[in-house]
Design brief:
Elements lengths: L1 H16 L6 E3 L5 H6 L4 E11 L9 E4 L5 E5 L3 E12 L3 H16 L11 H6 L5 E3 L9 H8 L7 E9 L4 E3 L9 E2 L7 E2 L3 E2 L9 E2 L9
Parallel strand pairs: 1-2
Antiparallel strand pairs: 2-5, 3-4, 4-8, 5-7, 6-7, 9-10, 11-12
Length: about 220
């Protein structure tokens, strides 16, 4: 799933924000060593955090239907995983970096979710939206300065992009065959009774439920 989000984000940046340019795209950690080896204008998409979006977790089971309309199996609802990317621009001039960041900001803001035509593999198979946000305040338990400190590099202007990808939990429970007859109840030593539920035979008035006893031979 992560590699599918990588590819979708790469295509979004390349085909929209950087269309018609020779700017490269990289996913490596933007450390000092990486910056020293860079020799062309580059947009870096660094995945620095992966965690579940607990607000989107669902309870219960989802039905899977057969071709005849009966329930064939039940599934655990998909989980939603937030992938956080630190996006930076690397050129020889700060002005060019700011221009690239501006294009990235405007193009990603125009998409509340990852465009469906960019989704592949399991993301496309699920058929669910993949929400995307940019430039939101960081969570209370994380600061962007901490990310740069961990990378050992100098603080640069950056964009925080969070992609919330659905993931199939992989838990499937086959369903039993549908019921084909009514319920049977045995009370004490009485003979088994078949209870048939249907509308009472009355000419008018509200609908009622009638239960008639059908005696069956003892065995």
């Amino acid at each position: 799933m992560i590699h599918e989000v990588d590819e979708a984000l790469r295509r979004l940046v390349k085909e929209q924000a950087l269309h018609g340019t020779d700017v490269e795209i990289a996913f490596e950690a933007p450390t000092k060593d990486w910056a020293a080896r860079r020799n062309a204008p580059t947009v870096n998409l660094y995945l620095y955090d992966i965690r579940e979006d607990l607000r989107r977790r669902q309870r219960g089971l989802l039905n899977e239907y057969a071709s005849d309309g009966t329930v064939a199996a039940r599934h655990v609802p998909p989980r939603h995983i937030k992938l956080s990317y630190l996006i930076t621009a690397w050129t020889q001039r700060p002005e060019d970096e700011h221009r690239l960041l501006s294009e990235l900001l405007l193009n990603i803001l125009a998409n509340e979710a990852m465009p469906a035509d960019l989704l592949t593999g399991s993301l496309a198979a699920l058929g669910l939206p993949v929400p995307m946000t940019i430039a939101l305040p960081p969570p209370e338990d994380r600061a962007f300065a901490d990310v740069w400190t961990a990378l050992g590099g100098e603080l640069k202007p950056s964009l925080d992009v969070v992609v919330c990808a659905p993931v199939d939990a992989g838990r499937r429970f086959p369903a039993g065959p549908p019921a084909t007859e009514g319920m049977r109840i045995t009370v004490g030593d009485d003979a088994p009774m078949a209870h048939h539920v249907g509308a009472a035979e009355e000419p008018a008035g509200p609908s009622r439920v009638s239960i008639r006893r059908v005696a069956e031979p003892r065995t």
